[in-house]
Specification:
The complex is a heterodimer of chains A (316) and B (477).
Chain A (H helix, E strand, L loop, with lengths): L5 H13 L37 E5 L5 E6 L3 H20 L2 H17 L1 H12 L3 H19 L5 H5 L1 E2 L6 E9 L2 E5 L7 H12 L3 E5 L6 H11 L8 E4 L3 H10 L5 E3 L8 H8 L5 E3 L14 H5 L1 E9 L3
Helix pairs in contact in A: 1-4, 2-9, 3-5, 4-5, 5-7, 9-10
Chain B lengths: L22 E3 L2 E3 L5 E6 L6 E7 L2 H19 L4 H17 L1 H12 L3 H20 L15 E2 L2 E5 L5 H14 L3 E5 L6 H12 L7 E3 L4 H9 L5 E5 L2 H11 L5 E5 L5 E4 L5 H13 L11 E5 H15 L20 H16 L3 E3 L15 E4 L6 H4 L6 E7 L2 H9 L6 E5 L3 H10 L4 E4 L18 E2 L4 H5 L3 E2 L1
Parallel strand pairs in B: 6-7, 6-9, 7-8, 9-10, 11-12, 11-16, 12-15, 14-15, 16-17
Antiparallel strand pairs in B: 1-2, 3-4, 5-19, 10-18, 13-14
Classes of the chains: A alpha/beta (316), B alpha/beta (477).
Chain lengths: 316, 477
């Protein structure tokens, strides 16, 4: 870590104080003013609805302090999110790789600009101090930038021209598979989250993301970032709520093409994989030892693309 | 006036078929521990060719244990360079014994000797040759510095291209350092059992390749065996889904090559004669027993009449009959069960209102036969436009605009292959981009090559076979 940024001083101090009083809302400890608390909502189709079920649930710090009420998504919310994601596929996958790269980079810019808010939410959600939270936000922004740069390189790295034994021009290209349902990592509320969302959308797929159940606040805020950074509505949809309740609906939904089980409970994986078999979703199994701080490699990108091979005769 | 060819039968003298076969486990042909036996017949004559084992669980278990021992003891420890040399040997032996394999394949499968000779066997050898070269170059496959094999691979293959499917499965698995237990289809086990001899001639270490014959139950026991690390399956989407469910929650990996309902899209500027050849090749090659067969012809309305007249004229020249005759274009349907399915779906096609047409042809009295058949007036809702017939049955639909062609072509849960016929290069690339299929043939159809990834989108399966992409199914980083 280099020089402390201005935000380190303000946010860090506030949040340290705040943890004993009002851990979410900076400024709440001043005596002259009542804080305006944030309502955490879903992010579906570019809008921020509450759950149609009208339910919410309490989000707390790891040591039990109340942070906020988050929307508790229902089956209907999950289906609405899939509809929005499905509708967004054609335009998003049809955008040029250059354009998608630009949009992703714009997300990183806006993320960086909102870093104080993310540092605070990561700190209170994960129970880590402000400096550790700042490092998490650094890594998350850098991770997003890393994936942004893949948009216009993936086809060259994963595609190719095949030297077939005959007079044919034969090439293979990676293509997005469609809607990817993502069960976000449960513990890593921001770095883990961006590590699973960015690879989905950089390929041209769209995402329905089920945020960490206990630590959903950075995910909701990420939705706000996405909504204000040129990502078309529906490309990323963020649901908060009970993983065990919502994940099975995503796993069995016939318009979902692929499933990332990163944050699925070990005892739920078999059932989710079985449900996914109904339409032969591409499934990425959870890795209990996944290190989100390490460079991720191509495995997530590869998981969400199909290889299309085109043959054409050569002649005069 | 009709000029006919004289029969040009291929001699069967090059093949010795034993009256019965045992299982190939740990480098030797061994008797079954708990299996029963069944007969494999020549579908063109219904004559019994031989008796093979319907392997039981003890047989499968013994084969998996042999594969495990070979994986731990020799194959995974061997330098890639040496593994590759074994694969080169196998490729060469297949080339040297090509005629014997081609004849045996035709006898057991019913496919025309011309196709077995010119397509199946050369491609099988080519797959071993291609993958042999990967064995010592795996660090260049884009999967990390030192990608690792999974271990024991359980492989279940179909009856439409018995030796070719064997090579698609075994060659990449071995190149990557895995060992295999392969179950050939119950109606076409003989070339796999002959392949056991090739392994012996190549002096492949014992247990690296094991072959257990049997039906669906044997396949299920292999797929579900707890000591199998990876499953590779080619077959129906229905069975593929069952396999996906069975590996759910386990550490097993799976690759699946499943069904298809390919659209072969013909635009009004396509060269009609070439398109007709492509349509014929697309659906009548190998009696239509091809998962990527062009079973839905989508023809632009303005040329539909002309194209259909030309297609029907061409079909009058197709020669259906004795697979061993080198002039034969369309051979026997592989089994009585498959013939029944083709008949059933064709009858449904008629009942649902499509118009059925076949060229007049005299079918042999014995054996399983179905004439090349064309349905016109097919709507996208008809079952013959939605379900995989896996036979020489073509459904013809029409379209007006490129957008409509794309929409109709993609209107299926499958996504294995598609064809496009047009003179316009920009349209070819536009269509290739829009079609949801793992393989798009433009102005050609049913081309295969070991360097070229093959596999499906959506419910046509998981993963690819062939090329660098195919290796991904047998290695992890």
């Amino acid at each position: 870590m280099g020089e402390p940024r201005p935000s380190d001083e303000t946010t860090a101090d506030h949040s340290r104080d705040a943890l004993t009083t009002d851990p979410v809302h900076q400024g709440a400890h001043t005596e002259h003013r009542l804080a305006v608390r944030k309502t955490y909502k879903l992010y579906v189709g570019g809008a921020f609805p509450r759950s149609e079920s009208g339910r919410s649930y309490e989000v707390t710090t790891p040591d039990g302090h109340f942070l906020a009420n988050a929307a508790q998504a229902s089956r209907k919310d999950a289906r609405d999110a899939v509809v929005a994601a499905h509708a967004a596929v054609a335009k998003w996958s049809g955008a040029t790789a250059y354009n998608r790269g630009q949009v992703l980079y714009r997300v990183a810019e806006v993320l960086e600009g909102r870093r104080a808010q993310f540092e605070h939410e990561v700190s209170v959600s994960e129970g880590i101090d402000a400096h550790a939270a700042a490092r998490v936000v650094d890594a998350a922004v850098d991770r997003w930038v890393w994936y942004a740069g893949w948009a216009d390189k993936l086809a060259q790295v994963l595609g190719g021209v095949n030297p077939v034994a005959g007079p044919y021009f034969d090439f293979s290209v990676p293509e997005p598979s469609g809607v990817v349902a993502v069960v976000a990592p449960q513990r890593s509320s921001l770095l883990g989250l961006v590590s699973v969302v960015a690879p989905v959308i950089v390929t041209g797929c769209t995402a329905v993301v089920l945020a960490s159940e206990e630590r959903p606040l950075p995910a909701v805020t990420l939705g706000e970032v996405l909504a204000t950074s040129d990502v078309p509505g529906g490309v990323v949809n963020v649901l908060t709520g009970r993983t065990a309740e919502v994940a099975p609906w995503l796993a069995s939904h016939m318009d979902v093409a692929a499933l990332d089980l990163a944050g699925a409970a070990p005892e739920a994986v078999a059932d989710l994989e079985r449900a996914a078999a109904d339409n032969l979703k591409r499934v990425r199994r959870p890795d209990a030892h996944e290190d989100f701080a390490a460079e991720p490699g191509l495995s997530r990108l590869r998981a969400w693309v199909e290889t299309k091979t085109v043959w054409h005769p050569i002649g005069v | 006036m009709r000029f006919d060819y004289s029969p040009a039968p291929e001699s069967t003298a090059v093949v010795d078929i034993a009256s019965s076969y045992s299982l190939f486990i740990d480098g030797a042909m061994v008797d079954s521990l708990d299996g029963s036996t069944f007969k494999t017949v020549n579908p063109a004559t219904e004559e019994v060719l031989s008796e093979v084992v319907d392997a039981g669980s003890a047989d499968v278990d013994r084969a998996v244990r042999a594969a495990r021992a070979a994986f731990e003891g020799t194959w995974s420890r061997m330098p890639g360079r040496e593994r590759g040399k074994y694969l080169f040997r196998i490729a060469r032996i297949l080339q040297e014994r090509a005629r014997e394999f081609a004849v045996l394949e035709s006898l057991d499968n019913g496919k025309p000797i011309r196709e077995a000779r010119d397509t199946d066997i050369p491609l099988a050898a080519a797959h071993f040759f291609y993958h042999a070269g990967w064995a010592d170059k795996l660090s260049y496959a884009g999967l990390g510095e030192a990608p690792k094999p999974y271990g024991v691979v359980g492989q279940v293959i179909p009856w439409n291209f018995p030796l070719m499917m064997l090579s698609w499965k075994i060659a990449p698995a071995l190149a990557a350092g895995n060992t295999v237990v392969l179950k050939p289809a119950e109606t076409t086990p003989l070339t796999a059992l002959l392949f056991a001899e090739v392994c012996q001639q190549a002096e492949l270490p014992h247990g690296v390749v094991n072959i257990v014959t049997g039906a669906g139950e044997t396949g299920r026991m292999l797929v579900e065996h707890p000591d199998v690390d990876k499953v590779a399956f080619t077959g129906s989407t229905e069975v593929g889904k069952a396999i996906a469910r069975s590996v759910a929650g386990t550490r097993k990996r799976a690759t699946l090559e499943l069904g298809g309902k390919a659209a072969n899209v013909v635009f009004d500027d396509a060269p009609i004669d070439q398109a007709v050849e492509g349509i014929v090749n697309g659906i009548f090659f190998n009696q239509g027993h091809v998962c990527c067969a062009g079973s839905r012809l989508l023809v632009q309305e303005s040329v539909a009449d002309e194209l259909l007249a030309s297609l029907k004229r061409r079909l009058l020249t197709l020669r259906v009959g004795d697979p061993m005759d080198k002039n034969t274009d369309v051979g026997a349907i592989n089994s009585a069960a498959q013939l029944a399915r083709i008949r059933e779906l064709s009858d449904i096609g008629e009942a649902e209102g499509a118009e059925r047409w076949s060229p007049p042809c005299d079918l042999p009295d014995r054996g399983f036969w179905f004439p090349p058949t064309v349905f016109t007036g097919v709507s996208p809702a008809h079952r013959i436009a939605r379900e995989e017939v896996f036979g020489p049955v073509l459904s013809v639909l029409t379209f007006r605009t490129p957008g409509e062609a794309v929409e109709k072509a993609n209107n299926t849960p499958y996504g294995l292959s598609a064809g496009v016929w047009t003179e316009k290069g920009s349209r070819i690339l536009w269509m290739a981009d829009k079609l949801k299929a793992g393989v798009v043939w433009a102005n050609t159809f049913n081309r295969f090559d070991p360097t070229s990834p093959f596999g499906g989108y959506k419910e046509s399966g998981w993963g690819r076979e062939g090329g660098r992409h195919g290796l991904e199914g047998y290695l992890h980083g």
